[in-house]
């Protein structure tokens, strides 16, 4: 938990935090990671894109936590994703640890 709100590099945040959470979700299928990735994207869309005077996001901005909790929706989505992945693909049988170092 952050103790103070400080400006964050929005590009680095989107690449490292959101990308890492989505990558970990694709390997594990854990719905909590998808929920946190969604919350991270929501905070990006609410702060730098909404407050920028141009069409480009601000380079540095304070990212605020999202308002609202859609945990049930994302849990259901995660379960549907897992079911579809298991039913229609063999992708989950061939996951390796080679990409874990990039998270």
Automatic annotation (TrEMBL):
One record GO biological process: carbohydrate metabolic process
List the Pfam families.
Glyco_hydro_47 (PF01532)
TM annotation in the entry = none
Q: Name one GO molecular function term.
A: calcium ion binding
The organism's place on the tree of life at top rank: Eukaryota
InterPro entries (alphabetical): 6hp_glycosidase-like_sf, Glyco_hydro_47, Seven-hairpin_glycosidases
Q: Mind naming one GO cellular-component term on file for this protein? A: membrane
Name residues in a coiled coil.
Answer: none
Q: Which family does it belong to?
A: Belongs to the glycosyl hydrolase 47 family.
- Report the protein name in the record: Alpha-1,2-Mannosidase
């Amino acid at each position: 938990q952050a103790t103070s709100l400080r400006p964050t590099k929005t590009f680095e945040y989107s690449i490292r935090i959101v990308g890492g959470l989505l990558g970990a979700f694709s390997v594990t299928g854990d719905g909590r990671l998808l929920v946190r990735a969604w919350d991270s994207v929501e905070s990006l869309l609410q702060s730098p894109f909404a407050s920028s005077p141009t069409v480009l996001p601000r380079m540095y901005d304070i990212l605020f936590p999202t308002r609202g909790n859609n945990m049930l929706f994302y849990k259901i989505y995660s379960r549907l994703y897992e079911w579809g992945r298991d039913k229609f693909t063999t992708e989950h049988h061939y996951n390796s640890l080679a990409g874990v170092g990039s998270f």
